[in-house]
Design brief:
alpha+beta; 19 strands
Length: 545
């Protein structure tokens, strides 16, 4: 993990030069920690080319040698931490920063008459598949802003390396805070932009003041003009006329805005939590479940059970399954210790170099969306016996037919990785537009979600309507029905993957189709999508009175 004194050096050391940012890049690494750890290796080649360039330019080495020592020192520190280095979203952001911006300074120095071969190799490396570009940096910042919004983190704490109460040591400087503020403002996160600008202004060093403070104050004027409690909006136009590169006007500019920054004009970084959490949009219900504000009460939990399952297969009499009931209507179960490390290792080999950016079902086709920032791959069970073994175990867990289940889907979540609220069952439009593979197998009757890793912070699975938040637990698996017994999609199992604060999350999805399940889950004598068993019993009691 990076220490406080390393902040400026990290900012200088770790970003690919923007002179090459126009290169086409097919890969994406910010949405997967697995991919991020791979792209980290490219920096070693950059350092090698830099060493060759320096050998050809002895007269220019004073500055470059100092930079090389700093870069290698920071890299060695990261290597000592290993994979854990990438589990901090701040380290991921700083790696993105240095691989997309700060190498520009090195490139500028190298663009001289000598050292052209080393520079050409750096250009070639920048064209490599999966090499990050400016879009990757934006994705990294977007992940940080998502964490801040959903978990209600303070910009001050994030800049100090404190994530949801845990200190990771990584510090952000004024330039980092300004970068985040600029993207937050561009993406309409105005309150967050204000918080990051205030933090950027607080973190200005004497050296940075003349260069950065005009930018901070100018953007701050725009931000405050957008906020409803801004006073003196008419004066904003006058501030834009100031030439902020002049010391006198900079002081006037700062004095003009300082009047708006008193305690009476404090701007809340996050909106207050609603008093009534039952009347929310789907997204707000999802994020307040992720943050722990929506949860079940002891009264709602008292009838739920846990124990050993033996009834679905005779083998379970010898090796019963540990199961916990999290909801009985709709059914949501959590199985413990139902996948083994040897199976996870085999899965890791099967997915090596195969994952790509995840998509969601759109109007007429599957599309990449910020609603789902992860990478995934599908592998058929015929590829390896361990996948068939897992399916036999799922059949025992669910008492459902696995012969026509979809291919195994493996997903990895990266910086702030999440999948916003959704249901797994297909809407009629997906069938009508031919977006459903093997549509003759029907809809997704049920889901089994295996957790292949623990996650240090965040990354839970939120079920807003039934008020459940499943924390990732390695070797565990969640099970729920997506459809009512009548075959109608069950909206109550709306769920989403909460953003990861720190850690790497690998999951395995088993989506089970309706085909050949009538003997496993028969229909009721009524339409259970319109009235539940408990509601029927209540009506029956009232009629008998």
């Amino acid at each position: 993990m990076l220490h406080l004194g390393a902040t400026w050096r990290l900012h200088m050391a770790l970003a690919v030069f923007t002179v090459l940012s126009s290169c086409g890049v097919n890969g994406e690494f910010y949405s997967s920690i697995h991919e991020m750890s791979k792209v980290f290796g490219y920096e070693q080649k950059m350092l090698q080319y830099m060493q060759k360039f320096m050998a050809d330019n002895e007269s220019k080495l004073d500055f470059l040698k100092a930079r090389l020592d700093e870069y290698e020192r920071e890299r060695n520190e990261a290597l000592q931490w290993g994979v854990a280095y990438f589990e901090s979203p701040l380290n991921k952001y700083l790696l993105s920063k240095r691989l997309t911006v700060d190498w520009q300074r090195i490139s500028n120095l190298m663009e001289a008459a000598t050292g052209e071969k080393a520079l050409a190799r750096l250009h070639q490396l920048r064209h490599k598949k999966y090499m990050p570009n400016e879009r990757e940096l934006e994705g990294a910042i977007d992940g940080l802003l998502r964490l801040q919004s959903i978990y209600r983190l303070k910009a001050k704490h994030v800049a100090e390396g404190i994530l949801d109460g845990v200190s990771y040591g990584t510090q952000l400087n004024a330039q980092h805070c300004l970068d985040i503020a600029q993207q937050a403002f561009r993406d309409e996160h105005v309150h967050l932009a204000h918080a990051w600008l205030m933090e950027a202004n607080t973190r200005l060093s004497f050296r940075d003041r003349n260069m950065l403070q005009p930018k901070i104050l100018e953007l701050l004027a725009h931000v405050r003009a957008r906020l409803t409690n801004y006073r003196g909006v008419n004066g904003t136009a006058e501030t834009h006329k100031l030439q902020t590169d002049k010391e006198e006007d900079l002081n006037n500019y700062q004095d003009l805005l300082q009047a708006q920054l008193g305690p009476e004009n404090d701007i809340e970084e996050h909106p207050p939590v609603p008093e009534d959490l039952t009347r929310l949009s789907e997204f707000d219900a999802y994020r307040y479940t992720c943050s722990g504000h929506i949860k079940t009460t002891p009264r709602e939990q008292r009838h739920l059970r846990c124990g050993y399952m033996t009834e679905t297969h005779p083998f379970l009499l010898l090796a019963p399954l540990k199961v916990e009931e999290l909801s009985d209507d709709p059914l949501l179960l959590l199985y413990h210790e139902v996948i083994y490390q040897s199976e996870i290792d085999a899965i890791a080999e099967l997915t090596r170099n195969k994952i790509q950016r995840a998509t969601v079902t759109g109007q007429n086709s599957s599309v990449v969306s910020n609603a789902r920032t992860s990478q995934f791959t599908f592998i058929p069970k015929t590829r390896h016996k361990v996948l068939r073994t897992i399916d036999r175990r799922v059949a025992d867990m669910t008492d459902l037919n696995m012969d026509f289940a979809e291919d195994h889907q493996f997903s990895n979540y990266g910086i702030g990785g999440h999948y916003a609220q959704h249901t797994d069952w297909f809407h009629p439009n997906a069938f009508e537009t031919n977006q459903v593979a093997m549509s003759e197998m029907g809809n997704r009757i049920a889901t089994v979600l295996f957790y292949l890793t623990d996650v240090a912070q965040g990354g839970g699975t939120a079920f807003p309507i039934i008020k459940q938040l499943l924390k990732p637990e390695k070797y565990a698996a969640a099970f729920w029905y997506n459809l009512h017994a009548s075959g109608v999609g069950d909206a109550r199992v709306l769920h989403g993957a909460c953003p990861i604060i720190v850690g790497s999350k690998w999951v395995l999805n088993r989506w089970i189709r309706e085909f050949h399940q009538s003997d496993k889950r028969s229909c009721e004598f009524w339409d259970d999508s319109k009235i539940t068993m408990s509601q029927l019993l209540e009506l029956s009691r009232k009629e008998n009175k």
